[in-house]
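From the shared-data thread, chain only:
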Amino acid sequence: MAEVKIGNVSKTFDGMSRPVLRDISFTVNDAEFVSLLGPSGCGKTTLLRIIAGLEEQSGGDIVIAGENVGKVAPRDRDMAFVFQNYALYPHFSVKDNISLGLKLRKIPAAEIESRVRAITEMLGLEQLLERKPRALSGGQRQRVALARALIRKPKVFLLDEPLSNLDAKLRDKTRGELKMLFRKVNGTVIYVTHDQIEAMTMSDKIVILHDGMIQQIGTPGEIYEKPANVFVATFIGTPQMNILSKAQLKALGYPMDGAAAPAPDFNCGVRPEHFELASEPRQGWMEGEVAMCEPTGALTILTIAAAGTELRCSTALKFSPSQTRVWFNFSREHLQFFDPSGGNRL
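Structure, as tokens:
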């Protein structure tokens, strides 16, 4: 495996005045799983294609295992790319799809057979070797695409939203399998997704992109607990963080004195799980109307209307969908503060 260094990479497509990527820099350590996370159109797939050599950057450097690969052809970068649509050859069997890359590299037939047997046993594909892709489920096709990547033993694995075509139950199961698989093969992985759950559960490190720029780099815990700005704070977490102005806090009746605030003016965020809730009045607590009650099983998600503001909170307490009033509070230690002009963390 190998370390990947992205240095000041930018990209502007012909005919466009606005760059798709702007001054992107980060490092993927050897055997590290890094996710590129962001909304559609933020530039994450373009960046992955630049790393693979399928797109040429407008500026900056891509260094893999100490070698600047800016002028190296994609086939010579020793990377395996798993595409969103899997890109399997429809007229080839599973076995031929998996082994084709080795055959093109003129690997001896005995070694190919050994590698195919090992990788298909690892991924549970032994009974499917003679099937064509059209006879496979979405999950099976995804495993074939992974097998084709893993069998090459590349320096780096690049994955572009490989779970997006799976149903919710299979996606949940496959996330764990992928994480264990790449740990087993000690793989260096760069993984593109717009799904925060995938990024949070699978990654050693997350690079959050928005509007072609890096918003924050950190572990899942760092990004969730100390978001760099309002975009990250509201993008990570379901339901998303509540953002309140100083004036809204005052209207709610929340006791915020100057000593507790990091600046004269501020916005603050509170995550839904940090609310304390009660169905009866509590001394010093705020009161609101239950605008929506969404039982999810283990948790209930409430939308509370109070003082002209809507708040989203989650609780393990059981609330009746017919309940109309609720009393709530949140601790100052759980508040996150942001600059109201730029949105950056204070």
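The mean pLDDT is 92.
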